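User: Can you help me understand a structure? I only have the sequence.
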Amino acid sequence: MPSPHPPQRPRSRPLPSSAPAQPRSNDQPRCTTPTTTDRSRDRVVALIFAASLPVGLRRVQKLPEASRQIWHDGLVPLDDVIHHIRALTPQQRTAIAKCATAWRKRSEDSLEQPLRLSRTVLVTLKQWCHVLTDSDIEGVCLDLDDSITEIFAVVSLPARDIGRRLFGQLDQVLTVYSDARLALVEVGRFVPPEEVGDTTAVLAQLFLAIGEIVRTVVDCAAKALDTDYLVGVVEQVGRRDRLLEGLLTVNPPADLPESAVERALGLPVSVTIGDGLSSASRLASAWSRDRAALGARLRDQLPHLLDPDQTLTVDVWLHLAGLLAGENPLPSHLAAVAGRDLTLAALADDTSRVLEVIAGQTDLEGLMLTTHRRLIDELSTFRRGEHPEDRMGPACNAYLAIMEGDVRRTAQMVFGLLGRPVKSNETLGPLEERLATQPDQVACALLLSCINRSWRNAAAHARFRWDAVEQQISLGDELVDPIDLVEAAIRAHSICKGFHTGVAVALNREGDPHHLLPPTTDLVAWDGEALRRLGNLGIEAMKLRRQGTTVQLHVPPLTISTLRDHLVGVAAAGHHIPHAEAWEIVQEGRPVILLDANTISTTETVAEVGARESAVLHPHAAELVLYAGALLNSGATPQAVSRSVIGLATSTILGERDQLKPRLRAHDGAALEELTETFKRVARGVGAAMTLFPRPARRRLTSFLAMLSTQLMRFSGSFGEAANGLDGVARAWQASTPIVLPWILEQNHKPEKR
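Assistant: Let's start by predicting it. Here is the structure, written out as tokens:
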């Protein structure tokens, strides 16, 4: 399988072990298995022993494999290693010392690399364990051991060949040293719960220990492989691995909270639970309530991704919230930075090409949502499996869905941004080959790390079975633990989401030029837009589904105080949404609120012109139309509905008057104007609502409108009448309440004056 760690990182090679594998719980945080100090020390000694053997007794090009065989055959005493090295000829010693001294003079500054940890992104324990695994710190340490011991292979070379070989091996040690620094910097961006301990100090000490090993090895070579330095290297490896074991061993309290969105943004976990679409409304609602504080938390945690003065839209904020809540933070953040940089470069080169690529991706949102929902369903089935064999099918399905869905489409987008578009039906195999030709593109390297073509082919062509003896999936020619397949799918999904987050950040930074594109034809994209609009209005939807031209919106139980917000919010959010003619507001165990096409279109007639010439629905007018239509659709009689509409209208007027009363008594002209506008809006709402009734049932509303007109003329210019009068409105309120509210628990409600 391609390496699961970030690009430009040597592949991890786990230490051999005779201990049986321990079963893992589906939800158990999975950290890298720590290396024990004694085994690491013995391994290094075995490696050096293999390196010191004559060429005829080992394969120089496969030194690590040879040394492992030696280790398995029996532990090697350090004295035997020292004996082999001391057998160097004077000519060999001179060549080694001369070469290493020259190399050190050239590379002295590189042996003291600084380690600066940003420590910005708050993560949960589970995320932290994935960070450690994805960073592959243990693999880097193993690679460092292999590179160091390759230096000792020069003892079997003639003196004339040592210089060229040793220079290359010292360069390789320095490269792995730099990789170790990069890995620790990546890990150091993330802040686990305080119960994990002081990871900053551990990371700093670990890097210092790695640096000491490298510098001691260079000194050892400069002293012609002085064995006293060799003993120091072995001891330093032990100290390093004690630190590594401490970092990788995580034993926090069992009841430690594990909500990523709560830890990162201070939001309840409920805002992200859903099908991947409806959470947009809940997150947007949270954003609209506390934009400044949440924006500050994002900037504090994402300085590697956001400009300090970048103005965030709700669309990009939703992407960023998803990034912080993802299970694999390290590769997804790398993908986000890669997506941002690639998009910015493409925009600078050819904006029209970028917008064409973005438009193509927007039209695929329905496919992306299907993939996401399939992943959720397969993971749910996987977790319910009582026996490991029960998890085989959902694990294969989840991996295949992400490979053929997210990874394939994201790869197509990457090549589009690079100006090397591929066909929409391009299969995964050719895409993998093209990704491999772009090793310098981080996005390509990350996507390539997701793909295991043999796994994909076996899953796609049903070439898999359960191996009852090994308790693993026989996937093609390989045995795979079901949870490894699922974790690979989740990691790939996280990388793809991270890349799209970076694209959104780049577009936002450049003024969102994609907003100038023609509207998409993809209904899922429009449903997402409707949910974001609902969230901005404070409506937290649980689910959104379409049935023909009717949109079903599932919401938590409504109350008297939230009913109006939902009625008006649905009408406003549904404005210009294609093929959304009617809306159903669905509450569990309560009657459905139906806002049919006639009610919606009638409500739009009372819209006012707002900023930028946009249509705005004022609740004082729109609520009356929506309430009347919903009540008529519920089966209430027109007579009962007209009575309730009057009750609602009068409560609005009297409630507004009571709020303005102190200002009216102070003869505040602006207050009088506000009350006048309320009268006019209510009158417009009642007049529009009246058109929903059959003609015989309109008489009561016609009389009410005449009374409103009379009352308006009486208080015009009269602060006393406005503050203390309105007797006609008060009598109508008394005569028309309680009103009918079949959709909430409080039945036959007598509305307060509001």
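Now, to help you interpret it: The first helix runs from residue 37 to 52. Residues 1-30, 33-37, 55-76 have pLDDT under 50 and may be disordered. Let me know which part you'd like to focus on.
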